[in-house]
């Protein structure tokens, strides 16, 4: 039994979903022989979905992520380390 109250926020859930999607996209790109970092950066900068493979439904998945939110989270994580 837990003595404390667990805090749940929608932001935490959204961050986990973003991470799950980005990981799937990364894995799909790597499996197809692409450099995942270069391809994801190309997509973020251009918003051109052709940077992302259709393998594992990656192209559809990455379009579910708001690019501004993704950039904010990437900068936040980079500076936190």
TrEMBL record:
- Residue spans making up a coiled coil are none
The organism of origin for this protein: Candidatus Ventrousia excrementavium
Assigned protein family = Belongs to the UPF0297 family.
Q: Which NCBIfam families match?
A: PRK05473.1 (NF003997)
Q: Which InterPro entries match?
A: IreB
Indicate what this protein is called per its UniProt record. Answer: IreB family regulatory phosphoprotein
């Amino acid at each position: 039994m837990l003595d404390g109250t667990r805090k749940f926020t929608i932001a935490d859930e959204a961050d986990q979903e973003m991470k799950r999607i980005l990981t799937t996209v990364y894995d799909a790109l790597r499996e197809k022989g692409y450099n995942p970092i270069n391809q994801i950066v190309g997509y973020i900068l251009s918003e051109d979905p052709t940077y992302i493979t259709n393998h594992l439904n990656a192209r559809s998945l990455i379009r579910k992520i708001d690019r501004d939110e993704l950039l904010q989270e990437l900068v936040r994580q980079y500076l936190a380390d």
